[in-house]
Amino acid sequence: MWSSPFITQPSSVSQIMLRVLLALIPGIALYVWYFGPAILVSIALASVTALATEAIMLKLRNRPIKPFLSDNSALLTAWLLALSIPPLAPWWMVVVGTAFAIAISKHLYGGLGNNPFNPAMIGYAVLIISFPVHMTHWLTPHALGGTELTFGEQLGYMFNGALPAGLTLDAVTMATPLDTLKTQLHLGLSVDSIRDMPIYGHLAGKGSEMVAIGFAIGGLYLLFIRIISWHLPVAFLAALFATAGVFHLVDPVHYVTPLFHWFSGAAMLGAFFILTDPVTSPTTARGKLIFAAGAGLLTYLIRAFGGYPDGMAFATLLMNICVPLIDAWTQPKVFGKKGGGK
Amino acid sequence: MRPLFKFHGGVHPPTHKAESTGRPIAQAALPSKLVIPLHQHVGNRAVPVVQVGERVLKGQVIGRPEGRLSSAVHASTSGTVSAIDMQLVAHQSGLPDLCITLIPDGKDEWIAHSGVDYRQTAHTDLRHLLRQAGVVGLGGAVFPSDMKSYSHKHQIRTLVINGAECEPYITCDDMLMRERAGDILRGAEVLRELLYAEEVLIGIEDNKPEAIAAMQQAVLEDKHAHMEVIAVPTLYPGGGAKQLIRVLTGIEVAAGVRSTEMGVQCFNVATAYCVWRAIAFGEPLLSRIVTVTGNVEHAQNFEVLLGTPVDELVAQAGSKPDTERHIMGGPMMGVDLPSGSVGVTKATNCIIEASSRLFPPPPPALPCIRCTRCADVCPAELQPQDLYWFAKARDFGKAQEYHLFDCIECGACAYVCPSHIPLVQYYRFAKSEIWQREREAQAAELARERHEFRLMRIEREKQEKAERLAQKEKAALAAKASAPAPNPEPAIAAAPATADPDDTLQMRIDAAVARAKEQAAAAQPKNTDALTAEQQAEIDAIEARRAKIREMAAHAGADDEPPKSNQG
């Protein structure tokens, strides 16, 4: 016998994940435009690794492979991880990070729906802790007009670690705009003089600011089709803006503008695509606000005072830890029980 | 315009109502037999008062109400009682229940009956008439109407008449309102009188403009004061009593609270209609409007005699050969009938003929990704994803803490779940497990009391024995005292009580019993001590489903461990 309800809406996990993947496309397109097609190779490599790892883990766990492999969640993890690390990262780094994210941080915790930590951010954390130097070699945007690698040369470096004769890695890569800001501030320069460096554009880093805008556009699409709720991006961006704003107002010489923080690093990607992972974020509306605001605050603190170039990943992971607590604390009142009573 | 209120969540499933509203209500043909269950209402099963072989008249009581919460059952037509036995019934449990089988004689001969003027009749008598006429809530709850129409003066402000009919496919109330608005309103007037209500609000979803127009017209024609027909937004489950009360009055009636405590009472339109037929004409509840739709040639509403076998009813709408099952009720909250042989009951508002083409089975369930689409649509404002988690983990205490018993099982959560998890099944499972445990705890408590009494008795007997012994020795001593006694022995029985090893053991037992009692009191499930009569009655019904639910849950999903029984 079957029991009610006998009808369901034609939605599915794989469809939701697919839409999130689609929403990443504007950002990726701008990425390719400004930094070349190397990122596509990273994404493809991460995707293949993620699907293979997912299949192996499902097999080891005696779970049906087809429904889970087609849920698109592994692909999303792969894309987010590839977008978080330098596009010129050697192939084995992409593979190690992705495999770790899927096998350890997802399947060892029980697979889809059960992982307490965002798998992509775990993958990122593993890579930045294990291979810090490789993680600082970001391609320079071609808008700077410096030496540029051809696609073939990019592939050569990714798979063989070889650069064309006469070129050093430093000639074709740079630290991120956030990282550069931090280093230069340490050297005693003021924010204004640093911002005059050629790598900076109107909002933040040249090229990377446009990629951030691309992610924001995709995020707004997700908001519009109600795949994500507004609470997370709004609270995160507001908290980041407010914290950065306070520091900037108090000491504009040493603290950069809030807008710079919005459009630097992984802030936009994080606000719309990483914090919004439903599995690892709170379920209540108030909980989402607290969670995302906490992440915004932590992101700023790590960026301004921590040792890492960006704070998004660690802020996300730290807030992931708090999710069960936040959920338990923010249980809303139920129908008919809002009026003071129990 | 009256300001309307909103309830949280809700969904918009395709309504499929147009299929069955194109034709007027038809009188269903007299069936070859009637299978009339004696338990068609909330409360105690009616007691049969006829014998096998007896000829009965249409409207004759064949089951008398038993106890305070019960209702009468009648012969739907004249004929001969051919059996009084256990048969499959139209109920979720799929278990048989006591039924009276009646072979119609085709004469449809009425028993003598007459109505009363409700204005000239005492309220107590009116309620008695409703009980004797077997009038119960026809919206699906089948709660005896006499028990719902009791109120003090000034207690009830608003009487809500529910014509919302939010479930897809069902149109029986819609058609009843279109065709018999006058009698519905007259019944509502009787109920208003019984409840001393100040106003009557008739809520109808705005996808039924014909019904709204007909009802408004009837209000004007019969000059009903204090009555207002209100179009409410179409939003499932807006026809739930709590949701409709919320929309019309802004009042939220919490789970376990009677709406009358908050000044509101709610009746379904079909119930109001039956109230009028019972009071004004003395006609007991013998038939009801049933929508027959789904996989049929011509979907339509029928006026169906209670007890009509579902098979015979659906044949009249041209049930198609590839029909696989009959769903009683709507697709959101309906029941998969155990067989087509069951009789139509007072709760049967709709029969959907289902084929796998119309209702494809859901894809295999994936794990919950906590997307909270379920929480977004939950009209009880629960966190269905948490309840699912607790039910699956058998953490029933936590499930109750998260208001499991506030769940109305409307199915909105399962409808939107992108992982296709049969959420409502999990909640039913958890509820029935909790009820079962409570029953077990009660049984254990009883056993403990018996045991304590036994210990007490043993102790008493021991003391009595010791006393007798002491008496004997005293007597012996007294006898000795008369003779010279150089070494008088101390009386054994006078030894201090605490020196007795048995007694310290007894004290330890007592202490342990007291501790266990305390623990049991502390571990008592919350939320369930204030059960309403409806819930209490439902417990028994749901208990019967437990076995089924477990079995169903066993097929629940690819990643999901099936819930197993306690013994598992």
UniProtKB/TrEMBL annotation, chain B:
Residues 476-499 have a biased composition (Low complexity). InterPro entries: 4Fe4S_Fe-S-bd (IPR017896), 4Fe4S_Fe_S_CS (IPR017900), Ion_transpt_RnfC/RsxC (IPR010208), Nuo51_FMN-bd (IPR011538), Nuo51_FMN-bd_sf (IPR037225), RnfC_N (IPR026902), Soluble_ligand-bd (IPR019554). The keyword Transport applies. Keywords: 4Fe-4S, Electron transport, Iron, Iron-sulfur, Metal-binding, Repeat, Transport. Residues 1-21, 471-501, 516-537, 549-568 are annotated as: Disordered. Pfam families: Complex1_51K (PF01512), Fer4_7 (PF12838), RnfC_N (PF13375), SLBB (PF10531). GO terms for cellular component: membrane. Gene3D superfamilies: 3.30.70.20, NADH-ubiquinone oxidoreductase 51kDa subunit (3.40.50.11540). GO terms for molecular function: 4 iron, 4 sulfur cluster binding; electron transfer activity; metal ion binding. The keyword Metal-binding applies. Residues 398-427 form the 4Fe-4S ferredoxin-type domain. HAMAP family: RsxC_RnfC. NCBIfam families: PRK05035.1, rnfC. This is Electron transport complex subunit RsxC. It comes from mine drainage metagenome.
